[in-house]
Amino acid sequence: MKKSILALALAASGSLAVTAISAQEQPQVPGAPDVSRVQAGDYTLDASHTLVSWQVGHFGFNDYFGLFGQIEGTMTLDPANIGATEFDITVPITSVSVPSEGLRDHLLRPGKDGAAPDFFGPEPEAARFVSTSVRRTSETTAVATGQLTMNGKTRPVTMLVEFSGAGENPMSKAQTVGFHARARIDRTAWGISYAAPLVDPMVDLEISAAFERD
Q1: Where are any strands of DSSP class E within 5-121?
Q2: Which CATH architecture has domain 33-213?
Q3: CB-based burial of residue 88 (10 Å sphere; 0-12 exposed, 13-18 middle, 19+ buried)?
């Protein structure tokens, strides 16, 4: 009986030791939503880890989703003066990704018989968003307003922005800051009116962006 109790005690202590070692070996996540980690300076967008998703209602049945990638941009940020933040973002339309090859072809194909394309056409200029004002709304949120140029037209857009994390990227060793943002735009304001209102003119955008300090 004593040997059984001793064996159980040894097994338990061994298990605790392994658990302690395993816990010590767990890597620490480098980014955290701690505003004190944010460093002032000029930043460049991490194109490999930044995406813009879009969502649009389809015939009133369901929503359809797509993505833009290969995004480039810059930001000037001072956590002590959020109102002075400036950013300039470029989104290549030809990077659009959807599950349907037929839809992607439709988004980028030319118009018929010399007419304007239904959506963007085969050689669209990249969309560009340039901020004009940033207003802090809480410790970790802000409202950013700017001008979006797309399809040859420039219109104002307002985004709700949330700080999501900061720290040193273990791969690039760069000080990195991340944000999530949301916006809703009326695509017809940029001349993309195909199938509206059967395909909803209102498009929801979600942005997940990471910036690396220069």
Answers
A1: 41-45, 51-58, 62-68, 72-77, 86-91
A2: Beta Barrel (2.40)
A3: middle
DSSP state of 10: H
Burial class (CB in 10 A: 0-12, 13-18, 19+), 25: exposed
- What is the arithmetic mean of pLDDT over 187-210? 98
**Confidence band, pLDDT 50/70/90 cuts, at residue 27:** confident
pLDDT of 20: 47
Using alpha carbons only, give the angle 115, 127, 152 rounded to the nearest 5 degrees.
40
pLDDT category at 5 given cuts 50, 70, 90 is low
Measured at the CA of 35, the angle between CA 30 and CA 41, to 5 degrees, comes to 90
| The amino acid at 76 | T
Alpha-carbon span 197 to 190, nearest angstrom: 15
